[in-house]
Design goal:
The protein is mostly helical. It is built from 24 helices and two strands. The chain has helices at 7-21, 26-56, 59-72, 75-108, 114-120, 122-133, 136-171, 175-179, 188-191, 193-196, 199-218, 226-244, 246-254, 264-272, 290-321, 324-336, 342-361, 380-404, 408-416, 421-432, 434-449, 453-458, 482-489, 498-532, and strands at residues 277-278, 286-287. A hairpin with a 7-residue loop joins strand 1 and strand 2 (286-287). Helix 3 (59-72) crosses helix 14.
């Protein structure tokens, strides 16, 4: 019989001796080694948190300076009148939509050709032309005021750049060159005098504008059918409301103060509740995250509405109903989806799914579906459908694990008492595994809301709040998301700029959103466990 080898068993005593040398038993050493993974996770999470807050720190102070310049240069003053012109433009779009409806009525209900329908609309077009031209004097004034305010802002920014240049030259010891940099102090009160002096002229134009509007509205043509007349009456009412707001504009302009302090709270609320994300604008940059947050939420809603029934349903079927052969085929196929790169799914959405859904929406037999037909192939529906595909494997795998953890006697006792298989699944197995299923859904939500490439490629990237008055058709509108904006713009910004820090603050909001989701998940699971107990 050969002698046993001495090399193999010698390893264990050596490690044991080393562990004793360090004052630890072998079990303690193993526990410390593998338990260190938790410490590493905590350290990594702390580093990510510190990094986000360090890079985002200072945004709100920079944003307050941004808002202060916007006020001091007179841009805020001009925007009072600019908003009036924008509201008139929106009413013009309403009128254009009404014309299209009348045109369709003449074509379909009366059987007129294009030329005949346009002849019938001659009176309407004359009315629409007078209504559209009524704002031209105000629009011209806004243009002149805007040039003055933009000039003041540009002068201030140039002087700020020169101060920075002088400071850099002084730090480099180039005193003579620093002294050659000419810096002119900007006196906002003096610079704004020409702009503020236009108030009386604006009031005269405003009175003339009101007269032109009322004259045009008094000559509004009658509509051919009651439905369209109702829309014309609504247009008249919108204009009455529009005109009623003119005195408030004049009052705001009269009491406007360029030296009014911009508090830090305004900088915070302008970001959290702002409805514009506008960068590289000659007029004013705005960093409001509402359109990005709404876009992320809308895409996630579509994804979960598709992924939860599919993922949980597949888990129940595979775990409780499917045969062994079906289980061996279905489970790997679903889990394989997780291995598909998200950028590949994004290309699939652009080339196939988006085009397919748009073509499907244009089928006459689907005209009853809200939002159908639509023309934007990249929208909430396309992105949400692809994100659902990404979330299904996560929800399926974790939900099936939760179903597996239900004690087998629960099922056997239910069947022994005469319950059917479906009654057992719905009333025993599902409630017993509910906490695990909720966790699966929330992890699926985390997978969806943190996805970048799919939404960047397939959501349409329109930075605007969707039109909620469209009802369910809102899901066919393009949006932008928080993750998408970070991926799209981070490579183009200057390090340390307000735009750069704004993107990191969006990342911080995502971070806290994930914490909030986990908090509510724990509360739901805890309440369920208490009720079961």
């Amino acid at each position: 019989m050969p002698a046993p080898s001495n090399s193999a068993p010698a390893v264990f005593p050596i490690h044991k001796a080393r562990a004793r040398f360090l004052g630890l038993s072998l079990d303690d050493a193993i526990r410390g080694f593998f338990g260190g993974n938790a410490i590493v996770s905590v350290v990594v999470l702390a580093l990510i948190t510190i990094f986000l807050f360090r890079e985002g720190f200072g945004f709100f102070a920079q944003n307050r300076d941004n808002l202060r310049i916007y006020r001091q240069a007179g841009l805020e003053y001009v925007d009072f009148v600019r908003q009036q012109v924008d509201d008139h433009t929106a009413l013009n779009r309403y009128l254009s939509d009404l014309r299209l409806r009348v045109f369709i009525h003449y074509r379909e209900a009366r059987g007129l050709d294009i030329a005949g329908a346009n002849r019938e609309l001659a009176t309407f077009d004359d009315f629409a032309g007078r209504y559209s031209d009524s704002v031209e004097d105000i629009r011209g004034l806004v243009s002149d005021m805007g040039e003055v305010a933009s000039g003041i802002k540009s002068k201030f920014l140039v002087m700020a750049d020169r101060r920075t240049e002088r400071a850099q030259l002084m730090a480099a010891g180039k005193t003579a060159e620093a002294a050659a940099v000419v810096i002119e102090e900007v006196d906002f009160a003096v610079e704004l005098e020409p702009l503020l002096g236009l108030l009386s002229y604006y009031q005269e134009l405003n009175a003339d504008f009101v007269g032109k509007l009322r004259e045009a509205l008094d000559n509004a043509p009658a509509m051919p059918i009651p439905e369209l007349q109702t829309r014309m009456d609504a247009f008249q009412e919108l204009n009455r409301t529009f005109i009623a707001g003119f005195p408030a504009i004049e009052k705001n302009m009269a009491r406007w103060d360029h030296d009014k302090v911009v508090p830090m709270s305004q900088s915070i609320t302008a970001f959290l509740f702002g409805k514009q994300w506008l960068t590289a604008s000659f007029w004013q940059d705005w960093y409001g995250m509402v359109p990005l947050l709404v876009g992320s939420v809308m895409v996630s809603i579509v994804a979960l509405c598709l992924a939860v029934p599919l993922g949980v349903g597949a888990a129940v079927y595979v775990n409780q109903i499917a045969t062994e052969a079906e289980r061996k085929f279905i489970k790997p196929c679903i889990e394989f989806i997780a291995a598909i790169p998200s950028v590949v799914l994004g290309f699939f959405g652009i080339a196939v799914l988006g085009q397919l859904l748009r073509m499907l929406s244009q089928q006459a037999w689907l005209a009853w579906v809200p939002g159908f037909p639509y023309s934007e192939r990249l929208n909430i529906l396309t992105a949400g459908g692809l994100l659902a595909l990404l979330a299904v494997p996560t929800i399926f795998t974790l939900a099936e694990d939760a179903l597996n953890n239900v004690p087998r006697p629960f099922k056997e006792a239910s069947l022994a008492l005469g319950a059917t298989r479906w009654q057992t699944i719905l009333r025993i197995i599902m409630p017993a595994s509910l906490s695990g299923i909720i966790s699966a859904v929330l992890l699926g939500l985390g997978r969806v809301i943190g996805e970048t490439m799919v939404v960047l490629l397939c959501a349409g990237n329109r930075i605007a709040i969707p039109d909620f008055t469209a009802g369910l058709a809102i899901f066919t509108q393009p949006v932008h998301t928080m993750t998408g904006i970070i991926a799209q713009e981070m490579g183009e910004v200057v390090h340390g700029s307000i735009h750069y820090r704004a993107l990191f603050v969006v990342g911080i909001v995502l971070f806290f959103l994930a914490l909030l989701i986990n908090f509510f998940a724990q509360r739901i699971v805890q309440r369920y466990r208490v009720s079961i107990g």
